[in-house]
## 1
Amino acid sequence: MSFGLTFDKILIILVIAIFLVGPERLPGYAAQLARLTRSLRDMANGAKDRMREEMGPEFDEVDWAKLDPRKYDPRRIIRDALLEEDPAAPVPAGPATPTRSTATAYELRQRRLGKGPVPPYDAEAT
């Protein structure tokens, strides 16, 4: 991603940075940049190796070009979705009929527990 930076603009930024940093500190900053680049490359390779370990042989079979976000074209996706045939429409369900009322369910629960015993209660679960 270039963010609209051309070679000319990058060159101007580098020249200004060289003047601001100065010749004394320039080798130190260059070494830091090299270390940062090396560590980022090592992290990327480590993540790639870890993915290869976890996915196994499927990692090499993945078509990475197909998953490239630069090839994402929303117009094509919408066109494909509109041209795609609909799966069989689900049959609408009839109106719901309650099997028992709330009062009946409450009475059934009271009968199951009985009037005297206290229902089990777990203080750690609530």
Note: The first helix runs from residue 7 to 55.
## 2
Amino acid sequence: MDFSDDLASAVRKSWSEPSDPPLFSESSNSPIGTPQEGSACSSGTHESSNPDSSEEYHLWKHHYAISDDAKTTNPQGELMNVLQELEFSEQPRPQQVRRSSIEDVSKIRQWLNPRSSFSGAPTNELNWQNSAQNRCWISILSDERDMGPIRVLDFTLRACHSRYTLYVLVPHDLEDLAKELAKLGIHVIAMEKIAPRLVPKLVPDSTSSPSDAPFFGNWNLLAPFLCLRDSFELVCYLSPRCAVLANVDELLASETVSDEIDNETCVLLTNTTDEPPMMIVLRPNDGIEACIREYMSIYISKDSNEKWSRLQNSTGLDVLKELFKDSWGVVAGEYCQRGPGTLSSGIKIVENPNNEPWSSQSSDEITSIWRRAWLELNRSSP
């Protein structure tokens, strides 16, 4: 077979470039596939089927960095396109990645295998147009203590002239708080209570009491994955304790970021994997929703049930790590900071764990941001 010079060169380049090892073999369960016995969805555990696997083997970690243009010194400036870098989990990051070469390899792989994850967004989902209506910011109101911080989050997003709307997920039993947010001009979406459930048809003694799941907020981090299918193409969750200091629309506008989330090799991107994330970028998907719901379901009696006990002591973050730890990427970690304390250079999103940081007597820089935002918010409110 004869190839044109360009195609032959690209094929040779594809052969010479290292490729990502598959995260799931043919015999293992995909995180969005039908749960089988022993799978992560059915038992909550996942063991390698390779008897030779050891600590010497390292999966690839995917990191995506969003940074300012080299000519821009003001953190309020526009963001650069997301740069994709690959690194071994315990090896130093390469100094430079030849992006054009990576793109060429991706194109070749897509030509040779149209079903490859390198094609970006899956083709079996709704055909969305990239617009501000199809992508949005998401936060979650778990109780009354979140009201003030969410108002600050919405205010700072507007102050930074984000072209994307903030929607707040609110449980049905907090309808009064939802109405208050709506009166303030904040968009609200009703959400179900999220907790492990006993399947009644298969469990005769499945009558549950409030003590079975004493704190529904433990699993609220799963809400964006469960409540937004068919509503948005791409969403970015922001913690209700966050404030935005500079425009970060790139998290939603960048096609490099959105195409990376194919819900097969990559399900979510967060600013960190070591602690509760301040932000999560995800693509709502019926397969991911089904996987989470299956994992949260109990088909045998809760009495002396190890999975039931484990779920009761878990959080939404624990569930995401259990199901998607091999399909998890990192993005924007370089401009996220958790306070209180001194604000670092280049930070665009900050989180303050206090319920009312504007009332705190602390004089640290991050707490002062909330104090100024709260004063300005109330000054501008009718």
Note: Residues 365-380 form the longest helix (16 residues).
## 3
Amino acid sequence: MTHTRSLSWLLLVALPFLPGCPTGGGGEGGFGGTAAAVLYTANDGSNTVSSFTIGGGGVLSPTSPASTGANNPEWLTVSSNGQFLYVSNLGTHTISSFTINGTNGVLTAGGTPITVPGTNPSPRGIVITPNRQFLYAANSATNTVAGFSVGTGGVLTSTTQGTIATGGTLARGVAVSPNGQFLYVANSGSDTISGYVIGAGGALSAIGGSPVSTGTGSSPEGLTVSPNGAFLFVAYRGIDRVAAFAIGSGGTLAAAIPQASFVTGIGGEGPQRVAITPNGGYLYVTNTATNEIAAFAIGSGGQLTLIGPNTSTGAGTAPIGVTIDPTGQFLYVANSGMNEVGGFRIAANGTLSATTPATFSVSPNVPVGIATPGRP
């Protein structure tokens, strides 16, 4: 597997939510359920999910890994109440489910992984809605989005609609608005973003004007919605840029906001994954090819301003995903090239500095991607 092309994620949960911390974010929203702050990684090299508790100073301590029961785990998403975790398995075209221990965050498999509809659909990005009623998977091989209802005990069943076409190719990243009304999918192969309204029973209907072009050769991958639901930020892997779109009342995407598409300066294959702070103030982007993280300040109109030089994750680390803890104090990246998680402190001005220690071993190996609950 070529990990620079993977759309996989590391996922972080923390509960109870700390008083005084900013709320919001895309995806599930919320951080409830566990008494400890816990971080999870999907390990492509061993078909497992590793879990860590987050201690003082952002230090990670490993707990027991869990088998996915499938091949090539790619993406993680967790319910807003912190009770259930789901993993997309690219190699076996399935989704694995787990219950989360409310005391220590340890995972228990929820039975046999569910098969995603379609012929070898290759699910990549997955996300669960804030109300915990529906889960969606972006399928890169069939260019569809599959919908699932989330039942008692976190059990998944296919929605009546089943799947809907993206209207593009190579569906990868997926994000849901904080109000749970809109779903967005990055189509890397066709340089487009598909948007949907989430209706009754989880049925998806295309938003007017969808899919929206992101420009020839842009190869959109990672995307996230701002905590206030006003903007969609997208990493353009193919042209080394990050773009911001204004989200209209019906979920429509306006043309990229003037001066909101910026060269990240990290070269290589360009930006791939994105994460936004809980207060919506800063955006971070990883680059696998150059082993760096770019940081941006987010203006009130969605404008992005690059913050200083990019932060190195270390030679050969190949960071793919990025996530931020619920307090907004720490950022973590999944370093697929070194079988580790890299940790960073987030300063008040958005700059990054390494935690002590700076990295945390992942065993079994090859952690891929990163995502926090509510901000995939």
Note: Residues 257 and 301 are 8 Å apart (CA to CA).
## 4
Amino acid sequence: MIIMGSVIAASFGVQTQANRERDFAQGSFHHFVIGGIVFSILFVLLLVGIVEIVLYVSDV
């Protein structure tokens, strides 16, 4: 859970220095890379879904 919170915070640029240092001390690089990839895929799918809904509702 800490990894996903850190990935989300880092993706929006709101990660604190203390949390960043904690992540480098405790976390594994691979976990953060996998978390970043999963977050990116889910974020893109969410955006595609929102666009599909808007286009469906607007009848374009």
Note: The chain has a mean pLDDT of 86.
